[in-house]
Structure formats: C-alpha cells, structure tokens
Amino acid sequence: MGRLAILAWAFLGLLLLSADAQPQRRVALVIGNGTYAEAGTLANPVNDALDIADKLRSIGFEVIEGNDLGKRELERSIGEFSDALEGAGVGLFYYAGHGLQVDGRNYIVPVDARLDVPVKLQLEAMPIDEVLDIMEQQTKVSLVFLDACRNNPFARSLSRTATMRSATALAGLAQFDSTRGSFIAFSTAPGAVAMDGSGRNSPFAAALLRHIAEPGQSINDMMIAVRRDVVSQTREAQRPWEQGSLLERFEFVSDGQPAQPRKPAAPAPPTEVAVLERSVGDDKGSIEKFLRQDYLTPDTKAMSETVKRLYGPSATIFGTRYDADAIAKVKADWFAQWASWSLGLEPGSLEVTPHGEDRAEAVFAMHYDYLPKDKSAARLTGKARVTLGLVKADGGWRIESETSQAMQ
Known about the structure:
By secondary structure, this protein is an alpha/beta fold. The chain has eleven helices and 19 strands.
C-alpha cells in the first residue's frame, strides 16, 4: 500500500518521473506594496510582485500573493501563508515596497501606515523577522527576498520626530541577528537605498526574473548573477547582498532540463483592459471544456498521442521540465494498474487568471477514484487542488506547467 499511495500522489502531483518519493512542496508568499496613503506611490512594486509570483508558479511553487496591502490584510496573508506551510519543504517570502529598520530590526510598511512618530511603529508596521520565524519553524529551507530598501519618506519623518529616548529609523534594511536554515537576499547593501527602476521592474526584480529559472544553478550562484546585473544596470550605485545558514545546496530548477524564462507581460493599456477581461471570460468556457473533455478523460489506449496533444513537446511539472515521451510513459504505467478509474472537475471550483492574450492560469479542485486490479490493494479516492499554466497553441489550450496538492 505504501508504494501504491506514493504512485498515486506522483500522478496527482502531475506525474513526476520518480514514483519512489514525494516531491517537497514549495510555498511562497509574494507581496508588492506601492500605493501608500501617506508616502505617495512607488511605480514598480506591484509589477515586481506580479511577475515574481508568475515566475515562481512556473517553476512549481504554490503562491499566495497580495498587493497594496494594509496592516490587517498583510496579517491575514501571513496567516494564510503560515497555514499553507504545514508539510512544505521550502518556504519563500518576497516583498517589494517600503521597508525600514529601527534599532537594527527590519519592518515592512503597509500601505495604510501612519508613521509620524516612532512609538506607532509597533502598531502600524510588520516586523520581517516574525515572518522569518514562521518559515523557520515549519520548513527545512526558508528563502527571503527583500526589495524593500527604496527611498523611504517614513524613515526621514520618523528620524525628524525621534527623541533621545525613542528609536531611530534608518533608510535601508539591517542584517538579521540570526537565521536557522535560511537564505535572505537584500536588493542593496545594509543601510543603503535601492532604486525603484524606470521600466516595468526594479533592477533587483528584473535580474531575479532573468536568473531564477536557470537549471542546475545554486541559489548562491544565482545571487552572483543577480548582483552582477544590478551593479551593471545601476552603474555600481546598488549592490545586492545576502546572508544565509542553509545546510544543503538549493536549486530553484534542477539540472537536466532547458530553462524557459518567460518575459514579464507588459501591463495592458487602460483602453484594452476591458477587452482582455472579456476575452478571458470567453476563454473560461473553452478551458473548462478542455479540462472535462481532454485533461480529465485521457485516452489511455493512445497515451503518446494524448500527451502530445495536451502538453505539446514538453511541460514543467513541479518545477522540472520533461519531454512528452517521458510523461507518456509514466502515465501509461500509471493507468495500467487500475481496473477502473474516474477523474472529475468539482462544480464551481474553476478559477482562471489571464497572463496576457495567449496564456492563463487555471486552478480547480479535482476529485478522483481509482479501483486497483490488485484486490489486496486499497481503493484510492479523494480530492486534489490542481494548478495548470496554459498556453494557446494551434487554436486550443496546452499545458506548459502543472502542480497539485492534496485537499482535506
């Protein structure tokens, strides 16, 4: 039964090539704060967060995201992140927006913060180390990326109002006192200010997007590449740095597969937003049809042709890219075990998010029921939450990335 259950979850995890071990779940919280009530607007944090979230999903992360969050919304997102980390092997936190340090402690600044005097800091801001503590208690690997050192009016106003007995706010972020199994990347050096950027993304986010999906690259090597790009782009005005205590080598994408970094989609002009929304609304029907008639009812007698039709030449499954022949072999072996089986879309569960005109993300609940040929083996029934990255090709939808997790 143990091996059978592992194989079941390998299929529900969208057919990893190894059927002998469960992949470690990877969960990310991605936040971009740009529209501040009392500090004006930063142009790029929301763009940065949207693009980072999209990139992380494409390499197998479950992503919780929020943009322009007030204090209570930020706390709820962190609570949801904490719940999602249960049983995960890797946790990642990315934050873009205003941040500051007070007496060596780093804080995220919510968009509704009113920090006119230092005494309000504990009420209005969120200590970053509390998020790190949550991650370190629940995962073996904790990754933090902070593009939160942008030119900060809160630090200036708090410094002006500070007294001899109050804390002093400083621009930039400080090094964390201690970490356990963590890697923390900062967009610039301690106490320095990072650039928001003149394009769609900040220099740090743009470099991270370029390098994070390169296969076989350790996170340390990735940061060298990111740092090199940022130093070059900012003419040495900004130098990312990191601190860490990882006990093992970590790669975002394993070796042996081609990297396929996706260029961040440019925001649609305001006059095109309504048209795009209508188009995606129409596409939801075609996506649901694709799921019901193709994805959930594969032709097991012609698995090679089925996989090539559903996935094209290859697909990224839990962050690892496999060609169609490898996927077809695992699927064929999987279905050969069952006397009967059924997969179904839970009514009302399908959510479709557009990513430009020809890409979308589909998230839905799938129920499954497998009756084994081996009468001594247990029947497998349950539900899984499936996330598919879809791309339009030849007039229809194809799967370019796939992840899933069990549902209670």
